[in-house]
Model the fold of this input.
Amino acid sequence: MKNYSETESYSLIIKAIKGELKEKEFEKFNNLCKGIPLYNFYTFAMSVTDLMSDKALHLLIEGIIKEVEIFEKFPLHSNERLKALMSEEAKRYNYKVIFDEQHSTFSAPHIPKTVPNAILAHFKTILDANFEKIKISLEDGSIFNYVTGSIASVLNGLYLEYNEKFSKGFGNLILQIAARDAQVKYKVRLQGSSRKHIMSKLGLDSEGKIIPNKKKIKLLLDNTPKCSEDLIEGKVNQIIELFLAKKIKLAPVKSSLSISQFF
Done:
């Protein structure tokens, strides 16, 4: 896996935050993310996306999907870092998971009645690119089951399993079980009352076939930047310094102290 210099890594992060990544840079950003140990990535994702506008975050996810995920047999199946980014986007549209820190479990999982258009748009991008390949690969041939299963996995954010407060012991096991239970319940809900809505937004008919010339999903995105350029640069410096100072446990590395230890 390619290691990026501190300068190149910094540039990619800044561009992503501003929504200025160009062609081929989305794949680089994905590779950069893959170089971060998963148990560290959730902190990284929350820190960086907090600085991004809705539009910038959406464009980042869309770009990674177009340059990386559409070539996979089952897009979004194994890219846990992309799922974490999508979870952060979903939170902006009333998705949330509430859990009881004292007892290390969920107290009241919030199960949305509908999937945010911004999230459905990503799945439409995937289906538009390789609908037939995905459909042939599915055992039951159901695009809808594939989509609802993937959405449940993304929106119920397994990153909660890696919350620092529940990183070890029995509490973490309980949290994992609760997270998976929430996914199952959410998938069941999506397969019920939301079927017509989801299929329509994906440009599919009731049988799971593509509707010709289905209009693009209308997204309600906030174009307002989260913060000024000065604050963006300052925060990115803090994020990098945090990891370089090893305040968050990193995977063992052989190189000298540099940004490559983070990525």
About this structure: The chain is about 55% helix and 0% strand. Residues 161 and 173 are 8 Å apart (CA to CA). The longest helix spans residues 169-190.
